[in-house]
């Protein structure tokens, strides 16, 4: 899953608190099960987290209309296994309704992509918006259409109020959050850790010590997907949230304090302790800047006990890429929470929402399906995915680690905090080669230039928020 959306719209304080504790709870749950080795892959849930939907073929919990002859296009930035798995969900919708659904690969920034499609008179029927601000942007441009009563009924039945509210603009429901992400996890190659005698670190100081231990064993400690600037924003956000605290986090997310604030200097200085040590980064900074996110994961779990790196930081969606390497989550690949820089470990979440762009019976039926446990259950079984839908049976997730993450996410209810860059204007927090993505890529290349990086971040943020 890529990341999220940016706009100058600001969510309520309670919404910002949202993804924080959800992710924290997710992490805690994941650790509980990885400590047990994650071997209970087939273990069923006790049923308390939601009713089982079972196999969706031939029915399911949601009623859908017959749509024989209808054609739909769904646009998303998803690639690789993530796209392939979502297509299986769309195939089930086709099977039940008779509609024909075409997946349209989109590019970042997706709002620009959609704008070109709309200008050409050929918008997709539904778009999966990977940034929380995109929904408001689509509404402001009068592209988005409110979801219908059937989808709203599924949301009311299956989603906590917090996840429903994320898709509302001015009291109207425009987005259906189909996918959630916990973006505060560090995944590691267990063979590397065992050979090095390394332990899961709880603090940033311990993390750097663990990195040194792994390096001393002959393996480069950390893989960074620096070619994708969004991964670097996630690094910054986790360090900043833990070190500066939630109040400052909210202020910076809304640009109520400047990027020249001392708290930003502190976070960048902390990041430089890792990014500035060439021994700790696979390929060094130059190599990291040429490594895309998927490769940053796969190179950590291929090569036996001599991979290109021992650890990789990113969200729960890493599981899809790990699966490509044949490494088994819970055995070959384990996870620990992003280490605490300040008093508490950071917890950052994101998500992807379905938004109707062409108001038709077929488009409304699709978002209704995506709001149901039937759709989410299909993708949950395939791995590398978390749903905010509380009616998805926990046993649908394919291994103990993901079952733990999913259960904790649902148990967190409305208490969570959202990705900071996903709240910013797209031109600052969501555009490849520009704004925060580019500024942090430059910082990865030259982590000694803290003041210069702050100045560039502030100049870019000021222009974006003003616009």
From TrEMBL:
| Region named Disordered | 38-63
For this UniProt record, give its keywords in alphabetical order, as a comma-separated list: Transport
Q: What are the Basic and acidic residues biased-composition ranges?
A: 39-48
Question: What domain of life is recorded for the organism?
Answer: Bacteria
Query: Could you tell me which SUPFAM superfamilies the record lists for this protein?
Result: Periplasmic binding protein-like II
- Pfam families linked: SBP_bac_1
On whether Transport is a keyword of this UniProt record, the answer is yes
Q: Which family does it belong to?
A: Belongs to the bacterial solute-binding protein 1 family.
Q: State the name under which the record lists this protein.
A: Extracellular solute-binding protein
Natural source organism:
Streptomyces fagopyri
